[in-house]
Amino acid sequence: MTGNSKHKIVDHLFRHQYGKMVAILSKIFGLPNLELIEDAVQDTFLNASLKWRNKLPENPEAWLTQAAKNRVIDLLRRINAEKERHHKVIHGAVAFDINEFFLNHEVEDSQLRMIFVACHPAFSKEEQIAFALKAISGFSMKEIAAAFLQKEETIKKRLSRARKKIRDLNITLDYPLPNEIQSRMSGVLQIIYLIFNEGLHSTKPDALINKDLCGEAIRLCKFLLVKENFRSGSLYALFALLCFHASRLESKLGNNEIIDLKHQDRSKWYLPLIVLGNDALKKSMQFNDRSVYHYEAAIASEHVKAINFENTDWNKILKFYEEMYELMPSDSILLSKAAIYLQMDQLIQAKSELVKIKPESLNQRRYLLHGCFADFYEKTGDTDKAVVELDLAINSCSNQLEKKYLARKKENIVNKT
Amino acid sequence: MKEFMMIFIGANYEEIGLSPEQLQERMGRWFTWGDKMQEQGILKGGAALLSKGKRISGPERVESDGPFVESKELVGGYYTVTAHSFDEVVKIAQDYPDYDLGGTVEIREVMKFDREQ
């Protein structure tokens, strides 16, 4: 095993174990002690990585679990809680009680509760994402900051605000009330979607795809699907969508450049994920709820089933976009429709969609609007206007790889004239 | 299959006063013992008991506050295990970590009704 892949494995092991340990310890000691708990877990892993420098233990997971149990003893001594049993360990038989928290179904339960806490409506979306990525997914503040193009200090503040809200509002490690579960789940799905999207279209200046974020989103989705009462059409649909997108990851980058859907090598698309996605999409239709994810998954499914770009069922996709727009109007849907009309050479319809879009509503993705306008002008033969739009796109884009892609496009147009 | 209770007597850590490192080391041995029994599928239950106690006794229902005995007589906790015989449980009890602190394990069989006699 190369040093690099061993590193990755340990990294991922630490991340997942981190989430597990934080969840278990939060169940034992309560969420108000979250900062202490996270420090303790971090410390445990620091010790582990020092001890494992030269050789991995036979069962790294068991090693970490044991270390976490030892931490419980340590934390019992340090935490002053109202309940007497947290004061000190006076007899070893308490090991039985402690062990119970580490049983598989208990750990799973704690982790699930943590997911719902992360998506508490009192947290802002930014706080939810930071909290989820740190406490559940085990990303470091540095990694979260890098992923979302923020300063580490900003992430630190978000986490600190979330922890303060936990204390001020007495948020406990519990499931939402039955009448709140649906709305909380919709928040959970949103966060998973945002995390995946960030990994897919990373706003980092350099790497376009952050596989770790995508993988983590899928992992969280899969985790929720295990529990029957949390399954829904939306959850299955989201999972299908993530699978479809993830199946195409290998084909998106070549020579450190972006390859668009039209030119992606479809043989590089990972079939098992497509099969998984189709399965999930089918299951999603068996439920009564309908969501934006249903449509996005259906559209993604149309793309992955087409033999090549030209053979894609554009009309079907268009219809899905229209239905999606009825469910939840957004300018980015109009943009997608415009792109499809362009593909079908229906220029008048394309233009009519494009002019309805307000660039500000697309935020950091507004360069996509300019890119689409550029495509439009290229098709109408208006190369000067196309170049102007591409320049606008390049200037409003923060991703180096996307910038390169747009610059190449501009070069192609300029060279033709 | 029978069920037995191992009653742990004496060896109260608070009274003895262990350092954090000593406590950590000792708990490590309890965790190991617990894991071993879990793996064998024989551990059914267990708990540690806090020292403070209350007693209500006799026809007069006299109430009194404890602890009531010398600390080496104090019940600190218990584990219940499944086994075929006392001899088997004596073997299991060899891994009790606190003998060196003067602790005692008392083994008693649990009365079960759903057994063929």
Short description, anyone?
The complex is a heterodimer of chains A (417) and B (117). Chain A has helices spanning 3-29, 34-51, 60-78, 94-101, 104-118, 125-136, 141-147, 152-168, 178-200, 211-225, 233-247, 249-252, 271-284, 292-305, 314-327, 331-343, 347-354, 366-379, 383-395, 400-416; strands at 253-254, 257-258. Chain A has 417 residues and is mostly helical.
Describe, in plain words, how this protein is organized in 3D.
- The complex is a heterodimer of chains A (417) and B (117).
- Chain A has helices at residues 3-29, 34-51, 60-78, 94-101, 104-118, 125-136, 141-147, 152-168, 178-200, 211-225, 233-247, 249-252, 271-284, 292-305, 314-327, 331-343, 347-354, 366-379, 383-395, 400-416, and strands at residues 253-254, 257-258.
- With 417 residues, chain A is mostly helical.
- In chain A, strands 1-2 form a two-stranded antiparallel ribbon.
- The longest helix of chain A has 27 residues, at 3-29.
- With 117 residues, chain B is an alpha+beta fold.
- In chain B, the strands form 2 sheets. Chain B has a 4-stranded antiparallel sheet.
- In chain B, strand 3 (53-57) and strand 4 (62-66) form a beta hairpin.
